[in-house]
Write a structure and sequence with these properties.
Layout lengths: L11 E5 L2 E5 L2 H10 L1 H6 L4 E6 L3 H11 L3 E7 L4 E3 L8 E9 L4 H11 L3 E9 L9 E4 L5 E3 L11 H9 L8 E3 L11 H6 L1 H9 L15 E7 L3 H10 L7 E4 L6 H11 L4 E4 L2 H7 L6 E4 L8 E2 L22
Parallel strand pairs: 2-9, 3-4, 3-6, 6-7, 7-8, 10-11, 10-13, 11-12, 13-14
Antiparallel strand pairs: 1-2, 4-5, 14-15
Helix pairs in contact: 1-3, 9-10
Keywords: Glycosyltransferase, Transferase
InterPro entries: PRTase-like (IPR029057), PRTase_dom (IPR000836)
Protein name: Orotate phosphoribosyltransferase
C-alpha cells in the first residue's frame, strides 16, 4: 500500500479520572477525511461503508469528499448480527468505523462482507494498544491512551470505574437532557427578596404561573435545580399542579455547595449530556466540562444559545471529571 499522509497530532489530549484520553472533535474527524481524500480516491473503491452509528460521521465526510457512494452497515452488539442492504453489489469497499477497539464490530462486519465476496480495507478515527484489528487508515494512539468522541458524552462518568461500566452497558442512555427550573419554567425572583423575607417569598413563588415551556422540553427530561431539598415537597406540588413531569428532580442538599458546582456534579454523576441553564454565569461554569452540551436559555426569547467553552489545556484534568472535591 502506498505511503499514507502524515497525521501529526490530531485531537486534544486530556486527563480524565486519572486516565489519558484523546478527544477527537468533529473538525479533527473532518481533517482526517480530507487528509486521506486523494489517497482513497486512488485506491479504486466502489463505495464507502459506514458502520452505524459511530462510523457514520467519518464515513459521510469520506463519501462527500471523494464522491463515492455511501452505504450503511448495521450491527447489533447483543446478537452480533450484521445487516447489509440487499442491493449491495460491490467488490471492494472502504469500511469505516469510529475506533478499532477490543470488541467484535469490525471483525464481524468485515467477515459478513467477505461472505458476499466483497474485499474491505478499514478506516477508523483511531486505534489503540487494545485493538483486535490493525486498520489500514487511522490515528494510532500512544500506549495506554484511550479515545473519546463527541457522541460518547454519556460514557464520560466521573471515575474510571463508572466510565468503564457505562461503556460496556448496552442500555446506557445515548443522550440524557436536563433543565434548570427557576428562570426556565418559572420566573426567577430576585435573591434579595429571599433574604428580606424567606417564607413570604417562597409563598409568592408558589403562586407564580409557569412560563411557556421550552420547545426542547419533553416529559421525562430531568430537572436539576439550585433549590434546596427542604423545598422539595412544595416544588413537586408546583410541578404537579402545572403538569410538568420530570423524569427526575435533583435539588441541592444544603447551601454550602454553590448552585453551579452542584449542577455540574449532578450532570457528571448521572451522565447527563445536555443542560439548559437560565443563569449565564452558571452556564459558563458548567460548560467547562467537555462532556456536557450547555445551553443558556432565556425564557423571553425561547431560543437557547450554546455556551462554547475553550478546550481544556493538553494533559490538564477536565474540570468536573477528575476533581475529587466535587465527586458524589
Amino acid at each position: 500500500m502506498e505511503a499514507l499522509p502524515r497525521l501529526g497530532r490530531l485531537g486534544i489530549p486530556l486527563l480524565i479520572g486519572g486516565e489519558r484520553r484523546r478527544l477527537f472533535r468533529y473538525e479533527d474527524i473532518e481533517t482526517l477525511a480530507l487528509l486521506h481524500r486523494r489517497f482513497i480516491m486512488d485506491r479504486g473503491y466502489d463505495a464507502v461503508v459506514g458502520i452505524a452509528r459511530g462510523g457514520l460521521y467519518l464515513a459521510c465526510m469520506v463519501a462527500q469528499s471523494t464522491d463515492l457512494p455511501l452505504r450503511v452497515a448495521y450491527y447489533d452488539r447483543r446478537s452480533r448480527h450484521v445487516h447489509l442492504p440487499s442491493s449491495f453489489a460491490t467488490r471492494r469497499v472502504l469500511l469505516v468505523e469510529d475506533v478499532a477497539g477490543k470488541g467484535n464490530t469490525l471483525l464481524d462486519v468485515a467477515a459478513k462482507l467477505h461472505t458476499r465476496g466483497i474485499a474491505a480495507d478499514i478506516m477508523v478515527v483511531c486505534s489503540d494498544d487494545l485493538s483486535r484489528i490493525v486498520p489500514d487508515i487511522g490515528v494510532r494512539l500512544s500506549p495506554g491512551e484511550r479515545h473519546w468522541f463527541p457522541w460518547e458524552r454519556a460514557q464520560a462518568g466521573p471515575t474510571d470505574a463508572q466510565r468503564q461500566a457505562s461503556a460496556m452497558d448496552l442500555d446506557c442512555p445515548y443522550w440524557r437532557t436536563a433543565f434548570d427550573l427557576d428562570g426556565v419554567f418559572v420566573a426567577d425572583l430576585p435573591k434579595r427578596d429571599y433574604f428580606r423575607s424567606l417564607e413570604v417569598t417562597l409563598q409568592r413563588r408558589d403562586q407564580l404561573a409557569p412560563l411557556a415551556r421550552p420547545p426542547q422540553w419533553r416529559d421525562g427530561d430531568w430537572i436539576v435545580s439550585g433549590r434546596l431539598t427542604t423545598d422539595e415537597a412544595r416544588t413537586r406540588r408546583w410541578l404537579h399542579r402545572h403538569g410538568i413531569t420530570p423524569g427526575k428532580l435533583l435539588l441541592r442538599p444544603d447551601q454550602q455547595e454553590p448552585p453551579s458546582t452542584f449542577k455540574a456534579r449532578m450532570l457528571c454523576t448521572h451522565r447527563i449530556v445536555e443542560f439548559f441553564e437560565s443563569d449565564l454565569a452558571q452556564a459558563v461554569t458548567i460548560a467547562k466540562d467537555p462532556a456536557v452540551v450547555v445551553w443558556h436559555y432565556r425564557s423571553a426569547r425561547r431560543m437557547p444559545r450554546r455556551i462554547q467553552d475553550a478546550p481544556p489545556s493538553p494533559r490538564q484534568p477536565c474540570h468536573h471529571l477528575s476533581n475529587p472535591s466535587i465527586r458524589s
